[in-house]
Amino acid sequence: MKLKKSTRVIYFTPKADQIYTVIKEVNDKKELYTLDFNDQLVSENEVKLNTHSIFSVPSSMTNDNIVSYHYNQLINHILDFLKNNNPYHDINVSKENDSIYFETTITPPKTLEEKKYFHEEIDKLNGLIGQINSQIKSRFNKHIEVNLKLPLSIHHLHTIRI
After folding, report:
1. Taking residues 14-31, what's their average pLDDT?
2. Which of 4, 8, 126, 159 could form an S-S bond across to 143 if both were Cys, CB 3.0 to 4.6 Å?
3. For residues 150 and 107, is the Cβ–Cβ distance under 8 A?
4. In degrees to the nearest 10, what's the CA dihedral of 154, 155, 158, 162?
5. Rounded distance between C-alpha atoms, residue 34 and residue 16, angstroms
6. Band of pLDDT at residue 51, cut at 50, 70 and 90
């Protein structure tokens, strides 16, 4: 068996729907893979390797369950990317409802120097969002709000279009 656990794949269902998923388990004895989508068991010849960008999803999605699954998986990949590439140690990344938050305990800037540094931070975070937007080919025609949560205030960053 050539594929490993956590390999990203596109699985073609019997109805010819495409599922963007990952291999959850490898069963060498039965020569089957367990896919993350509904714990589906598939053989190696049923699995196609994913050659798309990490944020890509297939365009053929006819089942609402599949669309919802892909949407949630894409949001999870975006969160992982933001967490792994966050340039600041004092900012946590989280998701609440349909928004992403960068949360920090820093106090809002007061002096001119603090404001300049604050704008540099915002530019770095917006640059990170820009990287995501350049990697995603919009499939859902939705925007995810991204906010910088400061004590007693919220600053809106660029949105992520998915």
Report:
1. 84
2. 159
3. yes
4. 0
5. 18
6. very low
